[in-house]
Amino acid sequence: MTIPLRLRVRARWSVMLAALLAIAALTMPLGAQVEERIDYDALHKIRQEAQENSQVMDTLSYLTDVHGPRLTNSPGMRKAAEWAKTKLTEWGLSNVRFEPWGPFGRGWTNDRFSATMVSPQPFVLHGHPKAWTPGTNGRVTAEVVKVTLNTDADLDKQRGKLKAKIVLLTPQASTFSAAASGRSETQGPSFEPLLRRYTDEDLRSLQEDAIRTGPPGRRGGPGGTSQTEKFRRKRMAFLEREGALAILEGSRGEGNGVIFVQGARSGEDMRQADSPAVLPQIVLAVEHYGRLSRILDKSIPVKMDLEVENTFTDSDLNSLNVIAELPGTDKKDEVVMIGAHFDSWQASTGATDNGASSAVVLEVLRILKATGLTPRRTIRMGLWTGEEQGLLGSRAYVKEHFADPETMALEPEHEKLSLYLNMDNGGGAFRGIYLQGNAAAKPVFDVWMAPFADMGMTTFTMRGTGGTDHLAFDAVGLPAFQFIQDPLDYDTRTHHTNLDFYERAFEEDLVKNAIVMATFAYQAASRETLFPRKPLPSPRKPERRPAQTETR
Question: For residue 112, what are the CA distances in angstroms to 136, 138, 163, 348, 426?
């Protein structure tokens, strides 16, 4: 029997189409070959447990009110870690442990601080010591002098004039507010709201910006050139030799009682016992710095009382990460990870940076355990320390378990990690996810996010974001993601400031975030295949980082 031409042509096209589909299936990312489904029964159980029995705010109170601040290697950090370990064990989680890393250096605690202008009239000053700086060896009363020390010529000009003086350092005009300096040519106040949520237009702009600029995100926080670091060392050595008693600086920002304060930045790593000597360093509120500065500009002498008592802790120079697991079933050797950084700065209890995120991650494990859900893969939690000094804890963990980004020699565990989910941009509600340039992740997250449209979680952006612990995983080719969060007052009032307390976290947002993260972790742990990955990166040269890097 002769087959008609149209049928022969149709048959050839059918064979060709089948071949093309077969090739596409072989070349398609593994995770994209499986139809994504939402386990609505699991989602219902997660929502119910999170909304009816939430412990997230109680957990946050213990991490902040009771055990904050959690400066890396400080007694507060270690007590908070012990509390978290005990609580995880009580909840019935498995393999609860500390994983040491380091060496990091000494712990540090501010035990007492007071500063008062005593003349031309009494006035209590509002400020905070920088981390890893020494105290004043008791109460001192001394004259305050205002000096500019930004060049070698400035140092020569002040030689022999600073003995037994408290030094008020003038800021760089381009980085300090007009309220502090009194100079009209510097940045003025902002009229933007201090607290806000993303609008639909904000979220659309975030997506459009990714289309224009591509996926790369920020790599981390402010660093400093070698010349900057070299001069900082030189300036501090000069002030030490000259016999100055302490350094006063004004906070960055616009004021309103907000003091941004982190660690010493004299060009050396002050965490080490053999670091060169430095002076006590105090960051004052913009308004209080401004008052002192303007009085001194009028050639009116200023005298102040200052007392700073700080304690260095040398008992263990290594730090630690807190690890716990919910074991999987038939795929238990494969792992889904969730995490947040555990450490904070010293001027407050570190509620939005990053106690809220740590509380959410702990709550996720509690929820999953309490619901009795049985994920196929193991769900593992990591609470990282040393994040504020350069993602140190998460980088140490990744290097130990997965790969060294400088060589890209892979550990056996590398192929077993499905994905890592991170929270660390304040306590605001999740609104979407940064895809970190991983295009194959979007179809998966599309399905996972659909049930949360009522919570306002609707946005993808191909761009990456930086300055937090998912970067350690992404650097060795592992799928790692940070959520897009409502900013609230994170950048304006709480991030690295004296106002970052429990009151700045909102229960509704944290409960929502725990529901989303728990569902995503469970979905990833239950899907048939591992999460899709980007190609492995090439080995990279070691980063030239300042001795004490501040992130974001």
Answer: 11, 10, 24, 14, 28
Full DSSP string of 27-95: HS-GGGGS-----HHHHHHHHHHHHHS--HHHHHHIIIIIT----TTSHHHHHHHHHHHHHHHHTT-EE
pLDDT digits 0-9 by tens, 119-169: 999 999 999 999 999 999 999 999 999 999 999 999 999 999 999 999 999
Mean pLDDT, range 454-465, rounded to an integer: 93
Task: Report yes or no: 490 and 428 within 8 Å, Cβ to Cβ.
Answer: yes
What is the distance in angstroms between the CA of the first residue and the CA of the last residue of the chain?
Answer: 75
SS3 call for 524? helix
Please state the pTM of the whole predicted model: 0.89
Q: How many degrees, rounded to 5, is the angle at CA 76 between CA 251 and CA 515? A: 90
Indicate the SS3 state at residue 144: strand
* Contacts with 345 (C-beta within 8 Å, 6 or more apart), sequence order: 69, 71, 131, 261, 262, 263, 353, 388, 496, 500
Identify the structural domains of the chain with CATH numbers, from first to last.
Answer: 34-104+318-526 (3.40.630.10), 107-197+223-313 (3.50.30.30)
Virtual CA dihedral for 439, 442, 443, 447, nearest 10 degrees? 170
What is the C-alpha separation between 432 and 430, in angstroms, rounded? 6
